[in-house]
């Protein structure tokens, strides 16, 4: 036999083997692989739907928290503006000069005596310290604005507090005066 004689049966056997492999693959259900892929895709889509729902819930929660924070900031801004207006009003009241009352006497004007001037300036200083303290200014700021020592401002505030506490309990309020 020649080389061509035995090549024909080898080629026929190879073709027969390939035909068996093709038939074996076609014999299997091709839908199984597709069904497995479809079920995997469905699981992925279900997970994605769950994630989207979770993200929407978190977004709503975040929106509610942001709205509450914005409301809180608006309230704080209104309180700050009201405090600033009150502070400006108290500054205007402190800055407005008050005319001392003059009481004429047989000796002339009683406000012209040194003791009366000290009393009037002490009352005026006490009123200005009281107004600035009510505006929640620091003791050092009050002292700097009124050009007095911080100790004197603390003393006037303490006397004012004592007077307020005594008045609440029925005790007479001490007079505020500036002693040099």
Write the topology of this structure.
Blueprint: H1 3-27, H2 30-95, E1 104-105, E2 108-109, H3 114-134, H4 139-146, H5 150-168
Antiparallel strand pairs: 1-2
Question: How would you sum up this structure, described in words?
Answer:
The protein has 180 residues and is mostly helical. It contains five helices and two strands; from the N terminus they run ααββααα. A two-stranded antiparallel sheet has the order 1-2. Helix 4 packs across helix 5 (150-168). The longest helix is centred in the middle third of the chain and has 66 residues, at 30-95. It is rod-shaped and about 140 Å long. The chain starts with a helix and ends in a 12-residue tail after the last helix.
The chain-level mean pLDDT equals 78
- Summed up, the helix count is 5
Low-pLDDT regions: 105-118, 176-180
- Sheet with the most strands: spatial strand order: 1-2
Strand content: under 5%
Major sheet summary line: 2 strands, antiparallel
- Indicate the percent of residues in helices: over 70%
Helix-strand sequence? HHEEHHH
* Shape annotation: rod-shaped
How many DSSP E strands? 2
